[in-house]
Amino acid sequence: MKTKIKAQTLKGFRDFLPPEMAVRNYVKNILIETFETFGFLPLETPVLEYASTLTGKNGAEIEKLMYIFKDNGDREVGLRYDLTIPVSKVLAIYQNEIQLPFKRYQIQPVYRAEKPQKGRYREFTQCDIDVFGPPSPINEAELVAIIYSALTKLGFKQFTVRLNSRAILSQILSQSGLEDQKNTVLQSIDKLDKIGQDGVKDELISKGIKPAQIDQIFDYIKSAQPDEYLQQVIDLITQFGVPKEFYSFDPTLVRGLDYYTGTILETSVEEPKVGSIGGGGRYDNLIATLGGPDLPAVGYSFGLDRIVDVIQELNLIPDAIKTKTKILVVNFGAETQKENIDLITKLRQQEIPSIIYPTAEKLGKQIKYAESLNIKYVAFIGSNEAKNNQIMLKNIETTDQKLVDFAELIKILKNN
Amino acid sequence: MKTKIKAQTLKGFRDFLPPEMAVRNYVKNILIETFETFGFLPLETPVLEYASTLTGKNGAEIEKLMYIFKDNGDREVGLRYDLTIPVSKVLAIYQNEIQLPFKRYQIQPVYRAEKPQKGRYREFTQCDIDVFGPPSPINEAELVAIIYSALTKLGFKQFTVRLNSRAILSQILSQSGLEDQKNTVLQSIDKLDKIGQDGVKDELISKGIKPAQIDQIFDYIKSAQPDEYLQQVIDLITQFGVPKEFYSFDPTLVRGLDYYTGTILETSVEEPKVGSIGGGGRYDNLIATLGGPDLPAVGYSFGLDRIVDVIQELNLIPDAIKTKTKILVVNFGAETQKENIDLITKLRQQEIPSIIYPTAEKLGKQIKYAESLNIKYVAFIGSNEAKNNQIMLKNIETTDQKLVDFAELIKILKNN
């Protein structure tokens, strides 16, 4: 107890108070429920890994964005940067214990030493689903079915899952004689949404690509059609119950990461303008490159923070999730304390989330407290109620008040 | 994609594969459900804090056990060491937004740069509940009711919550003229369980306490009775529905931490010998000392890892939690793929967790896969079944096999 603490949270990091936690848990639980309905199994990995594990696949650019330091044993360690590297490590270490196809979900915070800005944090939560095992268009189609199922349950009315294939893009670049500059060209095309066709053209020219070649690429891309594999994926999506208005083929979709080898997909909403709310793709060579077994893989990552932003902005949050606590039992002090503690104990045995005010205070103060926590009911057994074995129940919203017995109370609380 | 990753997990850290995650989630969900039934609200704080925040209350000894480093902005930061310091910070920053009494639960991993050993990890999960606000014996009694409720739901048949009060211990030491050496004497008495009365005596002698004084302390402690506040707590615990065999007054209970001011409590089981599975107490001065508002507090911390160890050791894990996935739909390839995808899509619309094998393989291979994941049923629509609008259902455990329609299938799966 030497000095006072510095009451300050690091920039880019957030404290989640109960009202925000309620929304985050609501979203997280719907995602988990959906992942499990589709047979994905949970996995968690440590926050710290050997720095060499984290930086394996990345260049120096990305290393700068990692939290890397020496621990007390002089080991170079770093904070989890994404969930793909850790699962690759798991597949490498436990390959004899893991049955294929391996469908895992992982919901954990990741860390980026980036400059914090609106909607960008140094600590944020990724919700990843991946399937490891032989490629099958069923895997991709199920990813889209999961996106549809989860977002619909969350109340989304509009969203689009755009689909493309790196195989198609690669072929176009080969045809244009740009095989060797594939990644740098794709990085520019990836900005089409943000800087438009002219912007992309300028950037490609500055990278030394000839204007005629650029025009040709654009022509090829715009007339591109799904290849056989992607067409199978698209046909299957409908079979998995996703209405056609929620997904489309978009030959201009690129996705940022280098490691994709086939199908790529990204989900966006028109309102609010938050950009992508999730994305993924097929990466058939990455696990082996990372030291794991030679395993094809396809996955998708939901951005928890983005989804929370959207449902807050669009008022999609059901009132009922604001608090789990259904009722406050009033504390009038010694005279009727036993009756009121009996009442709350019986409520809890019926699994009704409930609180008793811990000290005897004026009724108005206790009601105000319940109101501030969005609790809908207060109940009490005063000396009169105690004599008649009754409970006074007050609905805080309507201010209605009536005498009930325990069975009636339970019925009202279970229906509200 | 420069080098291969080092497929190695740091010592003292753990990867949790799906079977372990199933058990951890089962325990975590029962704790959350119980906390919410008692009206506790969720809170989360960042993994990184200013090092000065973390080390505020602690001596140099404990700083050595912290992961502290400089981030890219040259700030001294550290990994969360416990959940008490972060909530104190939250109370200091958000004191105008938080309604008192504030009942919060927080379930997050914490980090200790300790030598890893059996049952001791560098990353482990604490599940803390605390009440901030005016002291009331109701708060302490509810903590014991929560412990009883959670452990009973988890299938514990035997456990003891031992209770004592630092106020009683302080009074005894004052009577013995040891007011000034309070903490050092308590640290020795705390070892009574491990080293016995002779061991404690030797240690106290080495600390310069006179043998006569030591004997007097033991006499006082053994004849100690609950003070008025603790007696109220004990009386209330019964009212909150906890049977008497699960808690007791133990005047020799000390608890390690310096900051407790009143009631202290600790839960232990006789089998297996894991020592304490949780503990807590009242700390009425800590929040102010840490720079927060002047707020009395009482709390309890469940050790998730210890509880998981106990229920694994005692075989208290229900079979049903081993997998959420209820059924595997067999993939026979193109001929009946549409029917089988329709089937699984309808199952998922009924929220039955289910998987379809992503590629066409021999039936035996697909059944073996389902078995390895503890999935109880496989179903398929072959070309004969398709003609008759039927589904072949096989129970993997009993090897029973029968033709059913969709309604029957749902009925069987919902009841199993």
SSE layout:
The structure is a homodimer of 416-residue chains.
Chain A (H helix, E strand, L loop, with lengths): L17 H20 L3 E2 L5 E3 H5 L4 H4 L4 E3 L5 E4 L4 H10 L8 E10 L11 E10 L4 H17 L6 E6 H10 L6 H8 L2 H15 L4 H12 L5 H12 L7 E3 L13 E6 L7 E7 L3 H4 L7 E7 H10 L13 E3 L4 H16 L4 E3 L6 H10 L4 E4 L2 H6 L2 E5 L5 E4 L1 H9 L2
Parallel strand pairs in A: 1-5, 7-8, 12-13, 12-14
Antiparallel strand pairs in A: 2-4, 3-4, 5-6, 6-11, 7-9, 9-10, 10-11, 14-15, 15-16
What does this structure look like?
The structure is a homodimer of 416-residue chains. The first copy, chain A, has 416 residues and is an alpha+beta fold. Chain A folds into two domains: 18-313, BirA Bifunctional Protein, domain 2 (2-Layer Sandwich); 323-414, Anticodon-binding domain (Rossmann fold), CATH 3.40.50. Chain A contains 16 helices and 16 strands. In chain A, a hairpin with a 5-residue loop joins strand 3 (68-70) and strand 4 (76-79). In chain A, helix 5 crosses helix 10. Chain A is elongated and about 90 Å long. Chain A starts with 17 loop residues before the first helix and ends with a helix. The relative contact order of chain A is 0.11. At the A-B interface, helix 1, strand 1, strand 2, helix 4 and strand 5 of A face helix 1, strand 1, strand 2, helix 4 and strand 5 of B.
